[in-house]
Amino acid sequence: MTPPKKPERRPLTARALAIQVMARVAATDAYLNVVLDSVLDEFQPKDPRDAGLVTELCYGATRRLMALDFALTTVVDRRLETIEDKVLAALRLGAYQLFFMRVPKHAAVGDTVDALKAVGLARATGFVNANLRKLSALTELPLPTGDDATRLAVRESHPEWLVRRWQRQFGPERAEAMLKADNEPPHVVIRANTSKQTRDVLLAQLLEVGVKATATTTSPVGIVLENPGRVEDLFGYDEGLWQVQDEAAQLVGIYAQVPPTAKVLDACAAPGGKSCHLAETNEVLAIDLHQNKLPKIQSEAKRLGLTERLRTKAMDASKIPDDFGEFDVVMVDAPCSGLGTLRRHPELRYRRTEKDFASLATLQREILESCQQRVAPGGLLVYAVCTTDPTEGADQIELFLRSHPDFTAESPRVQGLPLVQGYLRTLPGPEGYDGFFAARLRRMY
User: Fold this and answer.
1) If pLDDT is split at 50, 70 and 90, which confidence band does 6 have?
2) In the chain, at which end, N or C, are there fewer CB atoms within 10 A of the end residue's CB?
3) CATH architecture, domain defined by 188-244
4) What is the set of active-site residues?
């Protein structure tokens, strides 16, 4: 007897996939990019445009989460935290389409309700439909009453403590520019693998095959790609001609100005962009606390043709053994708050608190103290963090220099870098950078 055929599972729409992603991120506190990649791999939308729409919906709604939630509180008759994850995800995604996308109001509501049915929650469609219809009647996004920082926090969906902190640190105008930049989708930027060819040759090749690309304004090895789609399908990926890396992260490698013959230790190396950048010209040992992150570095090194110059080892950078040896250059890409990467990891802004800085600063000092012992006399210690906060950057380095008179800050002989008091510093804003800080310290004896 022929067994009955299993009913064919209908492919989920982009909005239904977005509900799955948003609900899973909320339930597990996982990184958005990890969950998004997992869901897209699992369901594999046939139309690339669907994958693009899922990405836009999830990242856009996460970036605008506080504004969406405030709007929802004006129409929903219960506390949002009491609503089950997928239903709340549908409300947020519907609200995002109403206020931030060029989607007809009837489609924003109707397609979101249909998506909720597709994920098995038909019982909640009346509730979602009614509340999204109430929102669709509003002519503009509602904002809270209160002072400028309170309204700005909701409008740009950043915690109020962070808004006030940036206003104190950078002034109100720059702070607002940073907030707005965090809500813009970042460009895809790649770094030419100069062990194989120059940036200019690669740029010409990309243009020749129809990829919309321009040279980065500051990094001499970067290229900005416009709407590239799936990067693994682009020219030069399989051949290892380039690696995805934001321009600000590229500038850390340029700023380090590592001599070509130097033996390099890259501490806290994952995900490995800086390790691979350094390995284009140097022998590099990349260490990271997490063994499971090393295969990614090894895989990228293999793709780029750098395996002979790049080795990996699982190790706690805050507890490097005394017999580990010395290096000409030690790169410390320290764990940090990640406040410079909020446009790429928008969920992070809602998870950080001001209390985090104290524990992070302690860990950074422990790693610096351990790693400085591995710097040979006359060698370089390069400290980098992907954050905007001075307590993790300049303040941390000034404290280190006061307790280590055998080190001195030394600016590189490289023109055109965004330097502040000799340190590399980039901020989110109209320049298009992620936020980074780097210091270059010379061991004198």
Assistant:
1) very low
2) N
3) 2-Layer Sandwich (3.30)
4) 386
Q: Where in 227-355 does DSSP place strands (E)? A: 242-244, 263-267, 283-288, 310-314, 327-333
Instruction: Give the chain's length.
Output: 445
> What pTM, to 2 d.p., does this model score?
0.93
Angle at 304 between CA 232 and CA 425, to 5 degrees: 90
- Per-residue pLDDT tens over the stretch 246-305: 999 999 999 999 999 999 999 999 999 999 999 999 999 999 999 999 999 999 999 999
Q: Mind listing the pLDDT tens digit for each residue in 163-174?
A: 999 999 999 999
Given a contact cutoff of 8 angstroms between Cβ atoms, the answer to whether 174 and 420 are in contact is no
Distance of CA 156 to the CA centre of its chain: 18
Residue ranges per domain, the chain?
A: 14-136, 148-182, 188-244, 247-443
Report pLDDT for 206: 98
Of the CA atoms within 13 Å of residue 159, those in its CB half-sphere come to 14
CATH for 247-443 (3.30.70.560, 3.40.50.150, 3.30.420.40, 3.30.450.40): 3.40.50.150
Tell me the C-alpha distance between 282 and 162, whole Å.
39
Residue 183, exposed/middle/buried by CB under 10 A (0-12, 13-18, 19+)? buried
Cβ neighbours around 444 below 10 Å, total? 11
